Amino acid sequence: MNLKDFNQTYFYKTNLIKLCKNFNLPTYGTKAELNDYIRLYLSGIDATQIHVNRKKHYDNKLLASDISLDTKLINSGFSFNKEARKFFGNYYNIDHFSFTKKMAIIKREAESNNDVNITVGDLINKIGSNNQIVNTTVEESTYQWNNFVSDFLTSNESNEFNDKLKVASILWKHVRDSSNEKIYTSNLINDYFSEINKYLKKAR
């Protein structure tokens, strides 16, 4: 495999982990981070020179009562667990609090940058002030399948079909295995109509 082939191929995270193991690269990280390790290796950098972007932290876990706005996100024992969920539920005064993708991205970036000063209060401020953080992160670009399905399901063309997810999976397989950009376009309907026409609500 060369770098060009790698960049033109869609890999699931399990595939990326296997590749990293084969190349003796780190296997800890997000899809975007695993992609980075492999691209560095295929660019000619020796595997021994490629290290994890973030470190696993094994600090003692904090209880909800231990967490405050001044609690550091890293190296403090803070983690997105049931205790943190309880803290945020109390903070926002809601019974069932759910962590968001934006929160995970902010914490992950803090770990990558070794930002030991960022606090829970900073996290809350960033959540409210930056609405573009999910769209601009490198990690988001690895969720091509999710984005593909979302774009297809909201398209006018999808309304012509009964089993929309089945149609999306057929179209995705062709896009995934091609060297084209991993996005949904209406041209795919015509290109692979012979494979999906049986799922039409009514004949064209």
Write up this protein.
The chain folds into three domains: 3-49; 64-136, no CATH class; 143-199. It has helices at residues 3-7, 13-22, 31-42, 82-92, 101-112, 120-129, 133-136, 144-153, 164-176, 187-191, 193-196. The protein is 47% helix and 0% strand. It is mainly α.
Enumerate the spans where pLDDT stays under 50 for 5 or more consecutive residues: none
Q: What string, H for helix and E for strand, traces the elements in order?
A: HHHHHHHHHHH
By DSSP (H or I, 4+ residues per run), the number of helices equals 11
Question: Could you tell me the strand content as a percent range?
Answer: under 5%
Tally of DSSP β-strands: 0
Structure described in brief:
By secondary structure, the chain is mainly α. It has helices at residues 3-7, 13-22, 31-42, 82-92, 101-112, 120-129, 133-136, 144-153, 164-176, 187-191, 193-196.
What secondary-structure arrangement, pairings included, does this model have?
Layout: H1 3-7, H2 13-22, H3 31-42, H4 82-92, H5 101-112, H6 120-129, H7 133-136, H8 144-153, H9 164-176, H10 187-191, H11 193-196
Provide the descriptors you would attach to this structure in a database record.
mainly alpha, 3 domains, 204 residues, 47% helix, single chain, 0% strand, 11 helices
